[in-house]
Design a protein that fits this description.
Keywords: Transferase. It is built from 14 helices and six strands. With 312 residues, the protein is of the alpha/beta class.
């Protein structure tokens, strides 16, 4: 089980240290203990199924100024707190990189060290849509429930999720994977994640993105990210870079983007990007399910709730 009250030394450039330990079948926040930031590092930080890989792809074309990658996206942009890649391997990947580094994390701010010289791209999505996407994703990985635990010592194996979307919805909005969270099972809470960053959204090194705004105006949101990161835009290449970040293009190129290296070919063969559209919850959620969702978002500040729940 994850523990509270973790002690962490605040070093040079660190605004605050992590306040909780998140350890589960897919997440281990203690991996950040060995992180040595470089000025200019970028952390793409989202709850699961809120546009993580999409945002990593956007950052990749902005950092390299090209649609090509020097390797699989999972190696170019490692997931430091994920349990599926050995800890030492991720740290070796990061240490060897000479380009501007951009990492992936699913942690809320209270599980991360927060450095002034690091830029944090935080993506949120309507929790009704993350629930649908999480169900598709977790159901596709149900076979892992039959394998021995691969998470940190003492954590349970990956749970098997129900096939029925309504049954999953009820669990997602009433159960937490950690004692201090009340929704998001079997992953971490999308509402707690958003709240942790909302309180720091005016910091100069934090940029909040919304999944729906990326869908509505990919060009404009990519320009916003480039400006936040201080990256120059080559207008001659710009249309090509934007096209490379559309959902259709990423889906068609998933093997090139994801396969190979330490991540293997599992993600590339799995329907990882799924449909990428919002509003599918309307086909599943009746009034009883929507009441559970409303109870989950009710504790949020009104301005955050209004911003977060702008599903199409």
């Amino acid at each position: 089980m994850a523990a509270r009250g973790r002690t962490h030394t605040v070093g040079v450039g660190m605004i605050k240290g992590p306040e909780r330990v998140y350890r589960s079948f897919f997440l281990d926040s203690t991996r950040w203990d060995d992180y040595e930031p470089r000025p200019g590092d970028i952390v793409v930080c989202t709850p699961p199924k809120a546009g993580t890989t999409w945002t990593q792809r956007i950052v990749s074309v902005l950092v390299f100024g090209d649609v090509g990658l020097p390797g699989p996206l999972g190696e170019v942009s490692p997931w430091l707190d994920g349990t599926f890649t050995p800890r030492g391997e991720v740290l070796r990947l990061l240490g060897a990189q000479r380009h501007r580094r951009f990492l992936k994390s699913h942690l809320p701010l209270d599980g991360l060290p927060f450095h002034s010289e690091v830029s944090y791209l935080v993506v949120a999505r309507d929790p009704r849509d993350t629930a649908m996407s999480a169900h598709h994703h977790a159901r596709g990985l149900n076979w892992l429930a039959d394998l021995p635990p691969h998470g940190p010592p003492g954590t349970a194996a990956q749970p098997r999720v129900p096939e029925d979307a309504r049954e999953f919805w009820r669990a997602y909005f009433t159960r937490g994977a950690f004692p201090w969270e009340t929704n998001g099972w079997p992953y971490n809470s999308p509402t707690a994640h958003a709240l942790s960053w909302w309180e720091w959204r005016r910091e100069p090194n934090v940029c909040l993105l919304h999944y729906q705004e990326l869908r509505d105006d990919l060009d404009g949101q990519m320009r916003r990210v480039a400006a936040f990161l201080g990256l120059a835009v080559d207008e001659r290449r710009w249309p090509e870079l934007v096209r490379a970040c559309t959902f259709g293009r990423m889906r068609s190129e998933r093997r090139r983007l994801l396969a190979g290296g330490v991540s293997g070919s599992a993600l590339a063969s799995f329907e990882f990007f799924h449909k990428g559209r919002n509003g599918q919850w309307r086909e599943v959620a009746a009034e009883a399910e929507l009441a559970l969702y409303r109870a989950a978002v009710e504790p949020l500040p009104a301005d955050l709730r209004d911003w977060l729940t702008r599903s199409a």
